[in-house]
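From the shared-data thread, chain only:
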Amino acid sequence: MYKNLAPLKFPKDFLWGGATAANQAEGAWNEDGKGMTIEDCLPFRTTGYEDFTKQFEFTSKDLEEALNADESANYPKRRGIQQYHHYEEDICLMAEMGFKTYRMSISWARIYTHPWDEKPNQKGIDYYHRVFRECKKYGIEPLVTLSHYDPPLDIVEKYNGWYGREVVDLFEKYARTCFEEFQGEVKYWLTFNEVDAMLRHPVTSGGLIQDRFEGKNFDEVIYQAMHHQMIASAKAVKIGHEIDPENKIGCMLTKLEFYPYTCKPEDVLAAQKRTRSIYRYADIQVFGEYPKFLLKEIEKKGLHVQKEENDDKILKEGTVDFVSFSYYMTSCEAGNKDGLDLAPGNTVNGVKNPYLPSSEWGWQTDAAGLRVSLIEMYDRYRKPLFVAENGLGARDVVREDGTIYDPYRMEYLKEHVCAMSDAINEDGVELFGYTWWGAIDIVSESTREMTKRYGFIYVDVDDYGNGTYQRRKKDSFYYYKQVIESNGTDIDHTKFLKEEE
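Structure, as tokens:
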């Protein structure tokens, strides 16, 4: 259990809030001119929790089945939590908690029904205007991700996802539309969610379906697609700054912290190598160039990444203003994993840490690891940091009186608030915001289920879409409200504890 070393203190304008993603929350997958995304085609699967990476296996046959599926088929992202029709209620509840910011994403396919359309979909633009105005009504600052795991299906079918260079220009047009349309309503932006994730799940991040690249080295396909996203991100950053110099545009990476399993030098080297790999593409977004270790990695694999003449210049001109990241858990790494227990995590597997507790889904809770990560990233980048995702997935139970008692979520939040405070006050880290994942229960990304719940707000719907979609406040709702009201200085959760029945 993490205990703070110094008195709790946060900057007076610290941005407390919560996060969701369009593909996991909005639903309304075929309403008001929205085009399909790859996420609309991912079925509910119960493959077990021992290896979440299997959840992301997807073939052309799977896509064909999705496109021919009838209404009885279970594609959870198509319905989400129907936020498209509940956004006013949801934002009102966030305001009641005291949110200073709401991290959300825009669906590219809702702005452009087809990415090559000359004109955007006005109904999609109008929807996001309404969302942002609702946020502003309550003094909530939107933090908007342009691409959060939902490549339009059109780019998958026509260009083989982000492998096609043509997608860079299409994304540039989309980003420009967002910056122009929502100028004055949105100040904080992120280009790509967990930008490193394509190396772990290329379908959801890049729209890359492996069997469509017969005869090609699929590793090379992924690295090429990653290069195209780096160019697209840099172009978007430059455009966003030109349209509104007040825009603050960041990157977002998956912060996976790996400890050496033992003090054996080979374990230390293995952990260092794996941790270093997490920064491969954030380094490009911050420094404007490929790190030498990534170039060496590509060379050793015998891969060729095609660059155009001005690509290096584009990367240099499109560096980000701040660094945001997701953090949920830590793992260990060893030079030799034979005989060691593996623990599932945020789209990866690692060696299980015997000193840490695990959730039902195997994720190992480690608030100290958040502090380690904050120090490590601030020392590396020397840019303001933002915790864009942090939270605990759990199986919540609605009691007979309608309440949801979730002390495990309060305890998790309490410990991570302590870790952030120490990073700021003991270690000198410049941290300006924190958004809990998720603000409200949504369809889980890794398992595509509702059973694994993260929110402070309960949504009455199950894994198969059955339910009223009614929103209910969990006990943690009131606890987070207390944390925000005190600007992180009152983390006492004992008043919310109840006698177990």
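The chain has 17 helices and 14 strands.
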